[in-house]
Design goal:
The longest helix has 20 residues, at 304-323. This protein has eleven helices and 15 strands. Helices cover 35% and strands 24% of the residues. The chain is of the alpha/beta class and 363 residues long. Strand 13 and strand 14 (268-272) form a beta hairpin. The strands form two sheets. Strands 14-13-12-11-7-10-9-8-15 form a nine-stranded mixed β-sheet. The chain has two domains: 5-123, NAD(P)-binding Rossmann-like Domain (Rossmann fold, 3-Layer(aba) Sandwich); 130-276 and 311-344, 2-Layer Sandwich (Dihydrodipicolinate Reductase, domain 2).
Length: 363
């Protein structure tokens, strides 16, 4: 009989409920506890999740529950303390939301703590489970593009929310080849006071060791993705995201809420549907945690090692935007990139590429 893994979930906001509900629905897991600082959230969530143990004290819950999987879905300013709590609980796997951390200094401490403990970790870059994302990866991996020379990602949402996704999926398209350097510019200070802290707009390039160039355009000045029409439903503005790869024989790209398309010399024009859907994307993300715990050789596609590679690229882009010049990778030491950006991003409202972005980046 397969092992059932004990799980606790910290944070009962939207993403915490997505995780908790999917763990609860999967027979390989036993949801033994949920936690939030808001008792009303716990009271509302518990009956939907089989009435697990509830607590407003994460440390007390972790000590009592002795979880195999410690999952937390909190604001990004709470990373290292909860990683340390998950390790102290004895959890074999820690699952948490992107970004990995809000500074490279904190990220390096997280990596050191995980490496020392031996605990596995995954980071929720779960869009990749969409059929449209998987189809683009299949086309790239199948060689239809010839020699891949460029990967790219754009999103109208600001970097603290979206850049981690853009980098991770394009690194996936490039088989996670290591990066050598990054360079970027930034503008707009509005979101530097947001809890998801970043400049309003960041654009930059990354050079990978295999010669592939990454191009990233994220935030207020990012280009339109006209395949996603947000005029009738502003929340779709968040899904104006385009990621793809170009090669010597063609290109393939995915649009978060607009399907996929490819044009190659071998196969001509191809396209298909697809849209971000937590109901469809979360179950395989959760199931593969059980697979990895069952068999260490079946490493989770969202394993910390992949996420950390993208995190370092993101931190390097931030450093370049703050300090100027090219930033070598891997990073030589830790820094507080958000503090650097707060010091050096010039005042003034960013310029927009589409009118809908103006509503999301107030003066």
């Amino acid at each position: 009989m397969s092992t059932r893994y004990r799980v606790i979930v910290i944070g009962m906001g939207k993403r915490g409920m997505h995780h908790a509900a999917t763990f609860f629905a999967n027979g390989r897991f036993e949801l033994v506890g949920i936690c939030d600082i808001d008792q009303a959230r716990l009271d509302a969530a518990a009956p939907k999740l089989g009435n697990p143990k509830t607590s407003t004290d994460a440390a007390a819950l972790a000590k009592e529950a002795k979880p195999d999987v410690f999952c937390f879905c909190t604001l990004p300013n709470l990373r290292l303390p909860l990683i340390e709590l998950g390790i102290a609980s004895g959890a074999r796997l820690i699952a948490f939301e992107k970004p990995v951390a809000m500074s490279s200094a904190e990220g390096q401490k997280i990596k050191a703590a995980l490496d020392k403990s031996g605990a596995r970790a995954v980071v929720s870059h779960q869009h990749r489970y969409g059929e449209h994302y998987k189809r683009v990866k299949e086309i790239i991996a199948g060689g239809s593009l010839g020699r891949v020379h460029t990967v790219y990602g754009t999103a109208t949402g600001w970097a603290a929310h979206m850049l981690s996704h853009l980098i991770d999926y394009t690194c996936w398209f490039n088989d996670y080849a290591p990066a050598e350097w990054a360079m970027a510019q930034a503008s707009g200070r509005g979101k530097l006071s947001d809890l998801h802290t970043s400049p309003d707009y960041l654009a930059g390039v990354v050079h990978f060791k295999n010669g592939v160039r990454g191009i990233y355009d994220c935030g207020a000045g990012a280009p339109d993705v006209p395949e996603v029409d947000c005029r009738s439903e502003q929340k779709l503005w968040w899904r104006k995201c385009r990621m793809g790869a170009q090669g010597t024989e063609g290109f393939a790209e995915v649009i978060t809420n607009g399907g996929w398309r490819a044009v190659t010399r071998r196969d001509g024009h191809q396209s298909g549907p697809g849209a971000m859907d937590y109901v469809e994307d979360m179950p395989p993300y959760i199931q593969q945690m059980a697979d990895w715990l069952d068999d260490g050789a079946r490493v989770h596609p969202c394993a910390f090692a992949h996420a950390y590679q993208g995190f370092e690229i993101m931190a390097a882009l931030y450093r370049s935007a703050a300090q100027g010049g090219q930033i070598a990778l891997p990073l030589a030491g830790g820094a507080d990139e958000i503090a650097l950006l707060k010091e050096r991003v010039p005042a003034g409202k960013p310029l927009f590429s589409i009118p809908e972005s103006a509503r999301e980046y107030p003066a």
